[in-house]
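Objective 1b: paired records.
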Amino acid sequence: MASGKILGQTSELTAQDPRRMVNLQQMQALSTSAELGLGDYWRILLKRKWTIITFVVVVFTAALIVSWRMTPIYDGIVRINWSRQMPNFFKDDQSQGAVENGDDPLSLETQIRILQSDFLALQVIHDLGLDKQPDFAGKYTARTSGGLTIYDSPRQQLEREDRLIKLLHANTRIQQVGNTSLIEIRYSSPNPQLAAQISNAIANAYIEQNIKAKFDSTMQAANLLSKQLADLQIKMETSEAKAVEYQKEHNIIGTDDKTNLTTEKLDELSKELIDAQADRIRKDSIYQMAKGADTNGSSIFSQNATLTNLRQQQTDLQAQYAQLSTQFGPSYPAVIQLQNRLKQVNKSYQEETENQVRALQNDYEGAVTREQMIQNALNQQTIEANKLNVDAIELKILQQEANSNRTLYDGLLTQLKEASLQAGLNSSNIRIVDPARTPLHPARPNILLNLEFALLLGLVGGVAVVFVLEGLDMTVRTPDQIESISALPTVGVIPFRSLQEESAQRSGISRTLKPAPVSTTLSMLPITYADPQSEISEAYRALRTSLLLSSPGRPPQTILFTSALPQDGKTTTSVNFAIVMAQQGKRVLLVDCDLRRPTVSKILSLRPAIGLSNVLSGGAKPQDAVLATMQANLFVMPAGPLPPHPAELLSSNLMQNLLLQWREEYDHVIIDSPPVLSATDGVLLSAQVDLTVLVVRANKTTTPALRRARDLLLNVNATLGGVVVNAVDMSSPDYYYYYSGYGYKYGRKYGAYYADKDAPKLNSTSNGVGASETDEAEKPATRSSGS
């Protein structure tokens, strides 16, 4: 008969059975999503604590090895104090006061950029001969022969200098010390002496460069004054000579001024003319200096705030352009952008400079015009005064001109002496506060800090790895998780049986469940028979209670145990469940329907000649294939020889008739079937029994397999009684708060409290009278006479 027809008939029977426990709609409605709480996170960390410990140890050890093998690096540190630049002699009292109050255009950032310049780095390299020191230059060390340096070509020399400059910059750090005017120069090197030497050389070269710049600026101003002073000296001598010559020609020995309006006006015009000439000369001097002076170094333009700001921008952009062009090349987009900005700033600077020069030119031309106007007025007044005393007035004018030239000459001579004195002093506004000394201890590596960071990194990384592994773990672990995934109730939790317990059973128990005659070799016994007072046996009795009380009418008579995948423990669960059912005094038949990989006979140490496959194929009678076991009331039908088509046999009418027959002869029929994802046998049988129990193995069965197995069973309207969680490690943190009565809670066994291992034990018999262990062991297994 076709399997579909059988499934249809059995579906109708089970649909009308009042003992049906859960329907498809109810189980789908029970699916809920569990949210993790703090306790769940803590259990995850506790469960995988060795992963965290291993990760921490690996990271800590790696950090220790790396830190220990790192080359020690020493830092030579120099601290210099930069004070604001003192004003030069061209500034007036008002501008000097502004500078002394802190309105200096330069800043510490500018000085830091100067310290980071390639020119200064190259000077340090040449001063110390670093290109000849292997500790600094390394593979770029200059070759020598006979004490002379060998250079291959000018281009190669420039390339080598460029590499040395980059190497010096890479190991140098220059920064401001807090909110002060101190600048810290730090150079790092494996050689402590070289680190201190280079740091001090950078500071000294910077101070020397600063002094030289000031000296050049001062000498430039002094040279300009010297030229003007020479011209003024000739003019002064000429005017004095004219006055003396005029006095000789007119034979004037002395003059008496007449106190009248003409003479007073002439005197006032003469004074104004002197002032105008002085003003014109001063402005002429400034204008001439402005035309020929260097806009970057001259103090004439330093009072212009706009030029100062533009000059600051030029400095910053030039430094950035030099750094980026050196690092990335002139075609790099950022370098091109900086170049365009620098051109724009240069253009603005040039325009502002030209405006400043034009302003000075206008002032000078105004002074010339004013002088000419006064001169014209004076000439007119002189004509009038000549009428009174032409000779005396003319002499007086000559003498006043000579005196005026003398005054101008003396003033410029004084300024020239001050400029020469300032240039000779070689003063600097930079001083070394703390010179670098040879460091005694390396700055890097900081082993203690590295280990602390490694410990923290290992802890954080270990926790992250734990949660990643937990997220990738698709296996089922706890009853709550299984119920959330499958929407099926958990009817039993079977603790894991350790190897120590198995060894103890093998060595301390000699009774067997073998039919006669069989080999006397000891084998592993079901724990519910070998140790009925153990925690695992108690778990199977709890499973028995859950299944027997699950139906509202009467307990299910035919119970099928299956699993999603092999090795989930469904056969072990079937055997032990059948034993605890028989221990209750009920007649129980255990049927091994796994016709592909039977293991019931191995567990019970049976060696049957025939089995279920013989019965279904018509080669034997059912009563001939049923065996009695050492456990009273427990009978077993082995699988028998493996047939070629097990699914067809299990879906036959004969299998249905056998189930109906067994219902009449036994109180309960326990069926062990193949995994539903490996073969369709379990799905076919689930539609013919009262109750189907799905066995999963903790930390092995995956959630997709569980869902797929559930769906296959529900698709044939199987009555799913729930899920049995097998091989549960009760000492795992996942079960710290689950089922403490089953065996473990915080590592302590509580089940042992209720069992006295030393008390005499009685073995169950069919009539309920206890028998000694010796008698029970000697009693042979016989074929059931009532089957």
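Objective 1b, second protein:
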Amino acid sequence: MSEGTETVINEAIQSAEPVRDPLDDLVEKSKADPSAPFESVAVTQIIALKKENPAAFERWRIRLKDTDVRLGELDKLLAAKAGESKETSGQGQSLSLPEPEPWHEPVNGAALLDGLAAMIRQHVVLAKSMADAIALWIVHTYLFTVLFITPRLGIISPVKQCGKTTLLDILANLCQRPMLTANITAAAVFRTVELAQPTLLIDEADTFAKDKDDLRGILNSGYRQGGSVTRTVGENHDVRMFSTWSPAAIAMIGKQLPDTLEDRSIPIRLRRRRKDEPITQFRADRTGNLHKLARMAARWAEDNRDKLAAADPDMPEYLFNRVADNWRPLIAIADAAGGGWPKRARDVAGELSGGSDAGQSQLLADIHTIFTDRNTDRLPSATLAGALAAMEGSPWGEMRGGKPITQNTLARMLDTFHIKPGSIRIGGETPKGYMREQFSDAWGRYLSPDSSRQSATPPQAVENLDAGVSFEAQQHEECGGLETPEGTRETAICGGVADESASIREREHAPDST
């Protein structure tokens, strides 16, 4: 190319009018005409962007917040129009998923999470830590498109009548685009996700999940952004990709989820309510407070979407590998919400994964008890892990998935204190294990002199559970927008962060995760 020709081309490029994106023009037009995005041509362009580049669609949608466009109504229209283009038969009902209209004013994130957690415990008997985890998971369903991981919510009950279906009913009133179903097929999952990106609420998974490898594979792949399956469609067997990227809660009766799903899940283990454990019966025809919380969650998510898209929270050392991946988006939400939730979420993550600060201290105390009771200076790893699992009232017998603590898990937890297993001599054998003297420094730093004798907490009556607190009855005026004024003592709805001694008492009286 000659120098003269190159100069002409460069001048033409510089003088050319920039090509404007019609969707950018639509944002400007919407400031004067909020109905502009509802025009037929605009809807077609928006649907194409949402399908081809979901992240760009979310960023574009955020810009509409500065206009008076009714975003909830627009999203419903987009889902309906996308469904019309994919209908292949007139049978059944068209897919219609509820999507709450965002609350009319900014929402305090910490108070929102408090309200969600309290609402759950009002209707279902479960540990406070699990209610906190579910509250974070609910909010994440409004934000998952800007996150990288959407952890599954694994809801397990040992027998019937433990509240799992009630919990799913509550989630169906609180989550973004909830789709409550049972015995769903693999094809129905990926076609529904491709169409509407719902929050899948799957009940009775024990009746079908273990025997359907294709369904488990799809639920596994949808855990990570970009997850998809490839299928051939039509008479010409055209190759098409279907998205599987969507939140999912999976409920079943049994000991645990299939291994691959359990590995990608936040564990929620229910148990049957006793007569002395108060709850408020869930009524499907009286869900006004739940819908209000859902609208608040939608608004808070809109206001914090950019922040969450760029979030990279500091993760505790006791969370690593897949467990850290599961908790990272929930901890990011807690950090953005503020208040007591950043610490609270990390404590919850540690408790449910067996690695919290409180759990670590109890581990040291229980090990001290075992060494003292056995009057020995050395123990094999297998013996120590078995003794921990057998301690009545301790969490070591049922950790992740209801399984007892293993030698490897014990080694990872003790590594936090720089205590590592090594070869020890017992008679003529040299198994891997621990010497008592290895724990001396940690015991001196982290335990009180008599803590080892009080380490295993016996089961107690659950008289102090606040699971029966009524959200409506406790909704004080300062919570009207779920905002907590400074200097106001936080309630179960608007704060939930008690002093340390009260927190310990609550943990001791809360139901365990069995």
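Confidence is low (pLDDT under 50) at residues 451-514. The radius of gyration is 26 Å.
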